[in-house]
Amino acid sequence: MKPVLVIYATREGHTRKIAERVGDDVAARGVRTDVVDAAHFPKGLSLEHYSAAIVAASVHGERHEREVVEFVKKRVHELERIPTAFLSVSLSEANAEDPTAPASRRAKAAEDVQRMIDRFLKETGWLPSKIKAVAGALMYSKYNFFLRYIMKSIAARAGGSTDTSHDHIYTNWAALDQFADDVVRSITGVRSSPVQVQ
Fold first, then answer.
1. 77, 28 contact by CB (below 8 A)
2. Is the dihedral of CA 41, 188, 181, 97 positive or negative?
3. 8 Å CB contact between 116 and 95
4. Is residue 158 predicted with pLDDT exceeding 90?
5. Which of 13, 31, 134, 171 has the lowest tally of Cβ within 10 angstroms?
6. Nearest-10 Cα torsion for 160, 121, 131, 77
7. How many CA atoms lie within 13 A of 175 on its CB side?
8. What confidence tens digit (pLDDT) does each residue in 166-195 have?
């Protein structure tokens, strides 16, 4: 079987960790993967070499990473020929998933997530086979002073952590593992289990 491509764009590195986790999960289920930064996608490499593609992009300023937007716009016809999935990584999704937040705040966050995904799909003209919103992270240790101040203010308004002494990861890793299983099942037609290494 051809490998699965996992392509991502990131600013502070958390979306790379998400892409690597999904890539490792898919590989653990017996399907080879290539995890590639969209900013460094090899020239001349065709998506015909892949059985499926998973695209992961974080959101900043309510827009997905420019590198992924450009990659998808340029490759949309290739992407349409294989099974695909889109992972939209945002703090808004963290708010939507927060069980301690008021229902109105969760609903507003979920609307924001859907609006940003819809904008991305309209801008790129892409209709992926699967779409999954993923809670991101507050990477205070990676922000400069100005950005740390802005993100702290945003977090305070949204009910997130304002403790800048360390990073705050909101990603549901178990849900990503399940997502990888779903991707493998959609490619192979069988439910898979992680390969046990002896």
1. no
2. positive
3. no
4. no
5. 13
6. -150
7. 11
8. 677 789 999 999 998 888 888 766 454 543
